[in-house]
Amino acid sequence: MENRWITNVRLEKGFKKDGNRITGTETEIVHLEIEGGKIKSISEELPTGAFAQYDAGGALLLPSMREMHIHIDKTYYSGPWKACTPLTKGIFTRLEEEKALLPKLLPTAQERAENMIELLIRNGHTHIRTHCNIDPVIGLKNLEATVRALENYKDAITYDIVAFPQHGLLRSDSVWLVREAMKNGATLVGGVDPATVDRHIERSLSAVFDIAAEHDKGIDLHLHDPDTLGAFTFSRLADYTAQAGMQGRVTISHAMALGDLEGDALSSMLAELREQRIDVTTTIPINRPTIPVAEIDRAGVGVSLGHDSITDHWSPFGTGNTIRKLGVLAERFKTIDEFSLNRLLKYATGGVTPLDESGQRVWPMAGDAASMMLVDASCTAEAIARRADIKAVFFNGNEIQNKLLQLQ
Protein backbone atom coordinates (compact mmCIF):
# COMPACT_ATOMS: atom_id res chain seq x y z
CA MET A 1 0.00 0.00 0.00
CA GLU A 2 1.28 3.46 -0.86
CA ASN A 3 2.30 5.56 2.16
CA ARG A 4 0.06 8.60 2.38
CA TRP A 5 2.35 10.48 4.78
CA ILE A 6 5.97 10.14 5.82
CA THR A 7 6.12 11.91 9.14
CA ASN A 8 8.89 13.40 11.28
CA VAL A 9 11.33 13.72 8.40
CA ARG A 10 14.53 15.74 8.81
CA LEU A 11 15.19 18.01 5.83
CA GLU A 12 18.13 20.29 5.19
CA LYS A 13 17.08 23.93 4.84
CA GLY A 14 20.31 25.92 4.57
CA PHE A 15 23.93 26.38 5.61
CA LYS A 16 25.04 27.81 8.94
CA LYS A 17 27.61 30.56 8.52
CA ASP A 18 30.16 32.46 10.54
CA GLY A 19 30.62 35.47 8.31
CA ASN A 20 31.31 34.01 4.89
CA ARG A 21 32.48 30.66 6.24
CA ILE A 22 30.05 27.72 6.22
CA THR A 23 30.18 26.01 9.61
CA GLY A 24 27.26 23.59 9.47
CA THR A 25 23.90 22.64 7.97
CA GLU A 26 20.52 23.75 9.28
CA THR A 27 17.67 21.22 9.30
CA GLU A 28 14.02 21.05 10.28
CA ILE A 29 11.44 18.34 11.00
CA VAL A 30 8.55 18.18 8.52
CA HIS A 31 5.92 15.79 7.16
CA LEU A 32 5.61 14.68 3.52
CA GLU A 33 2.33 13.90 1.83
CA ILE A 34 2.69 11.29 -0.93
CA GLU A 35 0.26 10.85 -3.81
CA GLY A 36 0.67 8.98 -7.08
CA GLY A 37 4.31 8.20 -6.40
CA LYS A 38 5.18 11.88 -5.96
CA ILE A 39 5.53 14.36 -3.13
CA LYS A 40 2.25 16.23 -2.98
CA SER A 41 3.06 18.58 -0.11
CA ILE A 42 5.60 19.35 2.62
CA SER A 43 4.09 20.51 5.88
CA GLU A 44 5.15 21.46 9.38
CA GLU A 45 1.75 20.32 10.67
CA LEU A 46 0.02 16.95 10.36
CA PRO A 47 -3.61 16.77 9.26
CA THR A 48 -6.19 15.74 11.81
CA GLY A 49 -7.87 12.35 11.70
CA ALA A 50 -6.66 8.89 10.79
CA PHE A 51 -4.28 8.45 7.85
CA ALA A 52 -1.66 6.00 6.64
CA GLN A 53 1.80 7.03 7.70
CA TYR A 54 5.43 6.00 8.01
CA ASP A 55 7.20 7.59 10.98
CA ALA A 56 10.76 8.58 10.00
CA GLY A 57 11.66 9.26 13.63
CA GLY A 58 13.75 12.33 12.80
CA ALA A 59 15.99 10.55 10.29
CA LEU A 60 17.53 12.63 7.49
CA LEU A 61 15.84 12.39 4.11
CA LEU A 62 18.11 12.28 1.07
CA PRO A 63 17.43 11.50 -2.60
CA SER A 64 17.89 7.83 -3.45
CA MET A 65 21.03 6.83 -5.31
CA ARG A 66 21.90 5.55 -8.78
CA GLU A 67 24.32 2.64 -9.20
CA MET A 68 25.84 3.57 -12.57
CA HIS A 69 28.37 0.80 -13.20
CA ILE A 70 27.91 -2.75 -11.98
CA HIS A 71 28.06 -6.28 -13.42
CA ILE A 72 25.21 -8.24 -11.83
CA ASP A 73 25.43 -11.06 -14.39
CA LYS A 74 28.78 -12.53 -13.30
CA THR A 75 29.39 -12.49 -9.57
CA TYR A 76 30.38 -14.69 -6.67
CA TYR A 77 28.13 -12.62 -4.39
CA SER A 78 25.90 -14.74 -2.12
CA GLY A 79 27.93 -17.83 -3.04
CA PRO A 80 31.01 -19.41 -1.42
CA TRP A 81 34.08 -17.26 -0.86
CA LYS A 82 36.61 -17.34 -3.67
CA ALA A 83 39.61 -15.04 -4.04
CA CYS A 84 41.03 -14.02 -7.41
CA THR A 85 43.82 -15.75 -9.28
CA PRO A 86 46.98 -13.68 -9.94
CA LEU A 87 47.11 -11.60 -13.10
CA THR A 88 49.81 -12.80 -15.48
CA LYS A 89 48.63 -11.29 -18.77
CA GLY A 90 46.64 -8.28 -17.56
CA ILE A 91 43.02 -8.13 -18.70
CA PHE A 92 43.60 -11.12 -20.96
CA THR A 93 44.08 -13.36 -17.91
CA ARG A 94 40.50 -12.65 -16.91
CA LEU A 95 39.16 -13.09 -20.45
CA GLU A 96 40.70 -16.55 -20.64
CA GLU A 97 39.19 -17.42 -17.25
CA GLU A 98 35.74 -16.43 -18.41
CA LYS A 99 35.69 -19.02 -21.17
CA ALA A 100 35.44 -21.71 -18.51
CA LEU A 101 33.84 -19.69 -15.72
CA LEU A 102 30.77 -18.16 -17.37
CA PRO A 103 29.09 -21.49 -18.25
CA LYS A 104 29.69 -22.68 -14.67
CA LEU A 105 28.09 -19.53 -13.21
CA LEU A 106 25.08 -19.57 -15.54
CA PRO A 107 22.84 -21.93 -13.48
CA THR A 108 22.96 -19.47 -10.53
CA ALA A 109 23.27 -16.24 -12.56
CA GLN A 110 19.69 -15.05 -12.02
CA GLU A 111 19.65 -15.92 -8.31
CA ARG A 112 22.92 -14.14 -7.62
CA ALA A 113 21.86 -11.16 -9.72
CA GLU A 114 18.69 -10.86 -7.66
CA ASN A 115 20.66 -11.08 -4.42
CA MET A 116 22.90 -8.29 -5.65
CA ILE A 117 19.90 -6.18 -6.68
CA GLU A 118 18.51 -6.54 -3.17
CA LEU A 119 21.86 -5.54 -1.68
CA LEU A 120 21.93 -2.41 -3.84
CA ILE A 121 18.34 -1.55 -2.90
CA ARG A 122 19.07 -1.91 0.81
CA ASN A 123 22.02 0.42 0.26
CA GLY A 124 19.76 3.16 -1.07
CA HIS A 125 19.72 2.64 -4.84
CA THR A 126 16.55 2.90 -6.92
CA HIS A 127 18.29 2.86 -10.30
CA ILE A 128 20.83 0.30 -11.54
CA ARG A 129 22.91 0.43 -14.72
CA THR A 130 24.37 -3.02 -15.20
CA HIS A 131 26.78 -4.19 -17.85
CA CYS A 132 26.03 -7.68 -19.13
CA ASN A 133 28.44 -9.99 -20.95
CA ILE A 134 27.60 -10.52 -24.61
CA ASP A 135 30.18 -12.84 -26.18
CA PRO A 136 30.54 -16.14 -28.06
CA VAL A 137 31.14 -18.01 -24.79
CA ILE A 138 27.78 -17.22 -23.21
CA GLY A 139 25.82 -15.75 -26.13
CA LEU A 140 22.66 -14.06 -24.85
CA LYS A 141 22.15 -16.39 -21.88
CA ASN A 142 23.54 -13.95 -19.30
CA LEU A 143 21.33 -11.25 -20.79
CA GLU A 144 18.26 -13.45 -20.45
CA ALA A 145 19.05 -14.09 -16.77
CA THR A 146 19.74 -10.38 -16.17
CA VAL A 147 16.47 -9.27 -17.77
CA ARG A 148 14.49 -11.78 -15.72
CA ALA A 149 16.19 -10.67 -12.51
CA LEU A 150 15.67 -6.96 -13.08
CA GLU A 151 12.07 -7.38 -14.21
CA ASN A 152 11.31 -9.10 -10.90
CA TYR A 153 12.19 -5.79 -9.21
CA LYS A 154 10.53 -3.37 -11.63
CA ASP A 155 8.29 -2.11 -8.80
CA ALA A 156 11.36 -1.17 -6.74
CA ILE A 157 13.90 0.15 -9.24
CA THR A 158 14.47 1.47 -12.73
CA TYR A 159 17.34 0.05 -14.73
CA ASP A 160 19.53 0.05 -17.82
CA ILE A 161 21.34 -2.93 -19.31
CA VAL A 162 24.53 -2.32 -21.29
CA ALA A 163 25.25 -4.94 -23.95
CA PHE A 164 28.90 -5.47 -23.01
CA PRO A 165 31.27 -7.39 -25.31
CA GLN A 166 33.79 -8.10 -22.54
CA HIS A 167 36.03 -10.15 -24.81
CA GLY A 168 36.22 -7.36 -27.38
CA LEU A 169 33.60 -6.28 -29.90
CA LEU A 170 35.92 -7.06 -32.81
CA ARG A 171 38.35 -9.40 -31.08
CA SER A 172 35.59 -11.92 -30.28
CA ASP A 173 33.55 -11.23 -33.43
CA SER A 174 30.60 -10.12 -31.30
CA VAL A 175 29.12 -7.35 -33.45
CA TRP A 176 26.20 -9.51 -34.51
CA LEU A 177 25.63 -10.69 -30.92
CA VAL A 178 25.46 -7.13 -29.61
CA ARG A 179 22.94 -6.35 -32.35
CA GLU A 180 20.85 -9.29 -31.14
CA ALA A 181 21.20 -8.13 -27.53
CA MET A 182 19.74 -4.74 -28.47
CA LYS A 183 16.64 -6.57 -29.72
CA ASN A 184 16.34 -8.65 -26.56
CA GLY A 185 16.38 -6.31 -23.59
CA ALA A 186 19.65 -4.37 -23.67
CA THR A 187 19.12 -0.61 -23.50
CA LEU A 188 22.67 0.72 -24.12
CA VAL A 189 25.52 -0.31 -26.43
CA GLY A 190 28.80 -1.19 -24.72
CA GLY A 191 32.40 -1.81 -25.67
CA VAL A 192 35.86 -2.13 -24.17
CA ASP A 193 39.23 -0.56 -25.02
CA PRO A 194 39.13 -0.21 -28.82
CA ALA A 195 42.92 0.09 -28.82
CA THR A 196 44.31 -2.63 -26.52
CA VAL A 197 41.49 -5.16 -26.77
CA ASP A 198 40.04 -4.65 -30.25
CA ARG A 199 43.36 -3.42 -31.68
CA HIS A 200 41.57 -1.03 -34.04
CA ILE A 201 40.13 2.18 -32.62
CA GLU A 202 38.33 3.32 -35.78
CA ARG A 203 36.65 0.06 -36.69
CA SER A 204 35.64 -0.60 -33.10
CA LEU A 205 34.10 2.85 -32.52
CA SER A 206 32.44 2.81 -35.92
CA ALA A 207 30.74 -0.50 -35.12
CA VAL A 208 29.56 0.76 -31.72
CA PHE A 209 28.03 3.90 -33.18
CA ASP A 210 26.44 1.98 -36.06
CA ILE A 211 24.67 -0.34 -33.60
CA ALA A 212 23.58 2.59 -31.43
CA ALA A 213 22.16 4.41 -34.46
CA GLU A 214 20.30 1.30 -35.66
CA HIS A 215 18.50 0.99 -32.34
CA ASP A 216 18.39 4.67 -31.29
CA LYS A 217 20.19 3.86 -28.03
CA GLY A 218 22.98 5.46 -26.03
CA ILE A 219 26.53 4.20 -25.49
CA ASP A 220 28.61 3.28 -22.43
CA LEU A 221 32.23 2.24 -23.11
CA HIS A 222 34.80 0.75 -20.73
CA LEU A 223 37.99 2.72 -21.39
CA HIS A 224 40.93 1.66 -19.23
CA ASP A 225 43.81 2.64 -21.49
CA PRO A 226 46.13 5.14 -19.77
CA ASP A 227 47.89 8.38 -20.65
CA THR A 228 48.04 9.54 -24.26
CA LEU A 229 46.56 6.34 -25.70
CA GLY A 230 43.47 6.77 -23.55
CA ALA A 231 43.31 10.49 -24.37
CA PHE A 232 43.49 9.79 -28.11
CA THR A 233 40.63 7.29 -27.77
CA PHE A 234 38.57 9.90 -25.89
CA SER A 235 39.16 12.40 -28.68
CA ARG A 236 38.08 9.97 -31.36
CA LEU A 237 35.04 9.06 -29.28
CA ALA A 238 34.16 12.76 -29.07
CA ASP A 239 34.54 13.05 -32.85
CA TYR A 240 32.23 10.11 -33.46
CA THR A 241 29.72 11.53 -30.98
CA ALA A 242 29.66 14.85 -32.86
CA GLN A 243 29.31 13.17 -36.25
CA ALA A 244 26.45 10.96 -35.03
CA GLY A 245 24.64 13.81 -33.25
CA MET A 246 24.71 11.79 -30.02
CA GLN A 247 25.63 14.58 -27.62
CA GLY A 248 24.46 13.73 -24.10
CA ARG A 249 24.03 10.03 -24.87
CA VAL A 250 27.58 8.72 -24.40
CA THR A 251 29.32 7.61 -21.18
CA ILE A 252 32.96 6.72 -20.58
CA SER A 253 33.27 4.16 -17.80
CA HIS A 254 36.50 4.25 -15.78
CA ALA A 255 38.17 6.88 -18.04
CA MET A 256 41.52 5.94 -16.49
CA ALA A 257 43.53 8.34 -18.65
CA LEU A 258 41.93 11.31 -16.88
CA GLY A 259 43.91 10.27 -13.81
CA ASP A 260 47.15 10.49 -15.78
CA LEU A 261 46.69 13.76 -17.66
CA GLU A 262 47.67 17.10 -16.12
CA GLY A 263 47.61 20.81 -16.88
CA ASP A 264 46.69 21.90 -20.41
CA ALA A 265 46.39 18.31 -21.64
CA LEU A 266 43.71 17.58 -19.04
CA SER A 267 41.91 20.90 -19.57
CA SER A 268 41.84 20.39 -23.34
CA MET A 269 40.53 16.85 -22.98
CA LEU A 270 37.77 17.90 -20.59
CA ALA A 271 36.73 20.68 -22.97
CA GLU A 272 36.26 18.10 -25.73
CA LEU A 273 34.13 15.90 -23.48
CA ARG A 274 32.07 18.86 -22.25
CA GLU A 275 31.36 20.05 -25.80
CA GLN A 276 29.88 16.66 -26.71
CA ARG A 277 28.20 16.26 -23.29
CA ILE A 278 30.05 12.98 -22.70
CA ASP A 279 29.86 12.00 -19.04
CA VAL A 280 32.14 9.81 -16.94
CA THR A 281 31.56 7.02 -14.43
CA THR A 282 34.23 6.04 -11.90
CA THR A 283 34.66 3.49 -9.12
CA ILE A 284 37.14 5.75 -7.24
CA PRO A 285 40.04 3.29 -7.57
CA ILE A 286 42.76 3.61 -4.96
CA ASN A 287 45.26 1.21 -6.56
CA ARG A 288 46.17 3.72 -9.30
CA PRO A 289 45.74 7.46 -9.94
CA THR A 290 42.09 8.32 -9.33
CA ILE A 291 40.50 10.55 -11.92
CA PRO A 292 40.27 14.14 -10.56
CA VAL A 293 36.55 14.13 -9.83
CA ALA A 294 36.21 17.73 -8.62
CA GLU A 295 38.20 19.15 -11.54
CA ILE A 296 36.15 17.12 -14.01
CA ASP A 297 32.97 18.39 -12.39
CA ARG A 298 34.14 22.02 -12.45
CA ALA A 299 34.90 21.63 -16.15
CA GLY A 300 31.23 20.84 -16.75
CA VAL A 301 31.63 17.11 -17.37
CA GLY A 302 29.14 14.90 -15.54
CA VAL A 303 30.55 12.39 -13.04
CA SER A 304 28.77 9.43 -11.48
CA LEU A 305 29.79 6.50 -9.29
CA GLY A 306 29.60 2.73 -9.62
CA HIS A 307 30.96 -0.34 -7.85
CA ASP A 308 31.91 -2.35 -10.96
CA SER A 309 32.02 -5.67 -9.12
CA ILE A 310 31.04 -7.08 -5.76
CA THR A 311 33.30 -10.09 -5.28
CA ASP A 312 33.92 -11.83 -8.59
CA HIS A 313 36.89 -13.21 -10.55
CA TRP A 314 38.08 -9.65 -11.27
CA SER A 315 38.12 -8.43 -7.68
CA PRO A 316 37.37 -9.88 -4.23
CA PHE A 317 36.29 -6.45 -2.96
CA GLY A 318 33.14 -4.33 -3.14
CA THR A 319 30.30 -3.57 -0.77
CA GLY A 320 27.51 -2.08 -2.87
CA ASN A 321 27.43 0.77 -0.34
CA THR A 322 27.70 4.06 -2.20
CA ILE A 323 27.64 6.18 0.96
CA ARG A 324 30.87 4.41 1.94
CA LYS A 325 32.25 5.02 -1.55
CA LEU A 326 31.51 8.73 -1.16
CA GLY A 327 33.47 8.57 2.09
CA VAL A 328 36.39 7.01 0.22
CA LEU A 329 36.13 9.80 -2.37
CA ALA A 330 36.22 12.39 0.40
CA GLU A 331 39.30 10.83 2.02
CA ARG A 332 41.05 10.29 -1.32
CA PHE A 333 40.87 14.02 -2.12
CA LYS A 334 41.10 15.32 1.47
CA THR A 335 37.55 16.72 1.45
CA ILE A 336 36.91 17.67 5.08
CA ASP A 337 34.83 20.87 5.33
CA GLU A 338 31.03 21.01 5.65
CA PHE A 339 30.32 22.57 2.26
CA SER A 340 32.64 20.32 0.23
CA LEU A 341 31.35 17.16 1.92
CA ASN A 342 27.80 18.28 1.25
CA ARG A 343 28.46 18.71 -2.48
CA LEU A 344 29.78 15.15 -2.94
CA LEU A 345 26.28 13.64 -2.75
CA LYS A 346 25.45 14.64 -6.34
CA TYR A 347 27.90 12.10 -7.75
CA ALA A 348 25.69 9.31 -6.35
CA THR A 349 22.24 10.73 -7.12
CA GLY A 350 22.38 11.90 -10.72
CA GLY A 351 23.08 15.45 -9.58
CA VAL A 352 20.20 15.77 -7.10
CA THR A 353 21.07 17.42 -3.76
CA PRO A 354 18.86 18.89 -1.03
CA LEU A 355 20.67 22.26 -1.13
CA ASP A 356 22.10 24.18 -4.05
CA GLU A 357 25.49 25.89 -4.02
CA SER A 358 24.06 28.95 -2.24
CA GLY A 359 22.33 26.86 0.43
CA GLN A 360 18.78 27.16 -0.89
CA ARG A 361 16.64 24.04 -0.62
CA VAL A 362 16.01 22.61 -4.09
CA TRP A 363 14.97 19.08 -3.03
CA PRO A 364 12.49 17.78 -2.13
CA MET A 365 9.81 19.96 -3.68
CA ALA A 366 6.14 19.34 -4.33
CA GLY A 367 5.87 17.40 -7.56
CA ASP A 368 9.19 15.56 -7.17
CA ALA A 369 9.23 11.79 -7.52
CA ALA A 370 9.15 10.21 -4.06
CA SER A 371 12.26 8.05 -4.57
CA MET A 372 14.44 8.70 -1.55
CA MET A 373 16.14 7.25 1.50
CA LEU A 374 16.24 7.86 5.23
CA VAL A 375 19.70 7.88 6.81
CA ASP A 376 20.90 7.98 10.39
CA ALA A 377 22.65 11.35 10.26
CA SER A 378 22.06 15.01 11.07
CA CYS A 379 23.07 16.26 7.59
CA THR A 380 24.56 15.20 4.25
CA ALA A 381 28.12 16.02 5.32
CA GLU A 382 27.87 13.79 8.39
CA ALA A 383 26.22 10.99 6.37
CA ILE A 384 29.20 10.90 4.00
CA ALA A 385 32.02 11.45 6.48
CA ARG A 386 30.64 9.00 9.04
CA ARG A 387 29.29 6.44 6.52
CA ALA A 388 25.76 6.68 7.87
CA ASP A 389 23.44 3.69 8.02
CA ILE A 390 20.38 3.67 5.79
CA LYS A 391 17.13 3.18 7.70
CA ALA A 392 14.65 2.96 4.81
CA VAL A 393 14.43 3.30 1.04
CA PHE A 394 11.40 4.55 -0.91
CA PHE A 395 10.60 4.09 -4.60
CA ASN A 396 7.76 6.25 -5.91
CA GLY A 397 6.53 6.67 -2.36
CA ASN A 398 6.55 3.00 -1.42
CA GLU A 399 8.88 1.74 1.30
CA ILE A 400 10.89 -0.90 -0.56
CA GLN A 401 11.69 -3.28 2.29
CA ASN A 402 8.07 -4.41 2.17
CA LYS A 403 8.48 -5.15 -1.54
CA LEU A 404 11.62 -7.20 -0.89
CA LEU A 405 9.77 -9.27 1.71
CA GLN A 406 6.93 -9.90 -0.75
CA LEU A 407 9.40 -11.16 -3.38
CA GLN A 408 11.11 -13.63 -1.05
UniProtKB/TrEMBL annotation:
Xref: Pfam families: Amidohydro_3
Cross-referenced CDD domains: Bact_CD (cd01293)
The organism's place on the tree of life at top rank: Bacteria
InterPro entries, sorted: Amidohydro_3, Metal-dep_hydrolase_composite, Metal_Hydrolase, Metallo-hydrolase_Enzymes
SUPFAM superfamilies with a match to the protein in the record: Composite domain of metallo-dependent hydrolases, Metallo-dependent hydrolases
Domain Amidohydrolase: 55-393
PANTHER family reported in the protein's UniProt record: BLL3847 PROTEIN, CYTOSINE DEAMINASE
Protein name: Amidohydrolase family protein
Organism: Planococcus chinensis
